[in-house]
Design a protein that fits this description.
Layout: E1 2-3, E2 9-10, H1 13-23, H2 35-45, E3 50-51, E4 59-62, E5 65-72, E6 78-86, E7 96-103, E8 109-111, H3 125-131, H4 134-148, H5 158-166, H6 181-190
Antiparallel strand pairs: 1-2, 3-8, 4-5, 4-8, 5-6, 6-7
Length: about 200
């Protein structure tokens, strides 16, 4: 049991779920310590977010208990759920935070806490590629080359870049410039690691 601010005691499984989302920077839109109250709020205000099949991060609503869906088990009829105020052999007021392995069918519902935001600026690359001409594709490639030339090599690649400089494969300038596959293949044969 959890002692609230006014001295009242109540089961804290939903308080734990609320805390997790709040700590992650995504406080739930309805503040409650009641599992059924949260489910009812979503059914009324965002019914499209209430499901019968879970996804990672969904809120699992059991009868009188809750947790956060992590993943399906090796048996797809079972799931791993992170729960507060639970314990093996004591689902109600167990006092622990644990990963539990439960039957998917034991849940009354699954709630996806937030709508997925659509970004109007996102380009559907497949659709774009299908509609562009060779000339347009080349123009995009030239712009991508110019942009790539301004980038610094990521930290994980710096040792390999130095090795290529030492081997005389490159002078080290513009390490992020894009090259065609045939050039990459030729460079592989020039590098000490790629020689057979």
């Amino acid at each position: 049991m959890y002692d609230g601010k006014n001295g009242g005691k109540y089961p804290w499984c939903m308080a734990f779920v609320q805390w997790c989302f709040s700590e992650a920077g995504f406080p739930l839109p309805h503040k409650t310590a009641s599992c059924s109250a949260l489910l009812n709020w979503y059914k009324k205000n965002a019914p499209e977010l209430v499901h019968t099949e879970p996804a990672p991060g969904d809120i699992v609503i059991y009868k009188g208990h809750t947790g956060i869906f992590e993943k399906y088990g090796p048996d797809p009829n079972y799931m791993y759920v992170i729960e507060g105020n639970t314990a093996v052999g004591n689902d109600d007021n167990g006092g622990c935070v644990m990963q539990r392995y439960r039957k998917v069918s034991s849940a009354m519902a699954f709630i996806t806490p937030f709508k997925e935001e659509e970004d109007d600026n996102v380009i559907d690359a497949d659709e774009l590629i299908q509609t562009m001409t060779d000339k347009q594709a080349y123009a995009i490639l030239v712009k991508a080359q110019s942009y790539a030339a301004t980038l610094e090599a990521p930290g994980w690649a710096k040792a390999e870049l130095q090795e290529a400089i030492n081997a005389g494969i490159t002078d080290g300038h513009n390490p992020m410039v894009l090259i065609p596959r045939y050039q990459a293949g030729a460079l592989r044969h020039l590098s000490p690691r790629g020689r057979h």
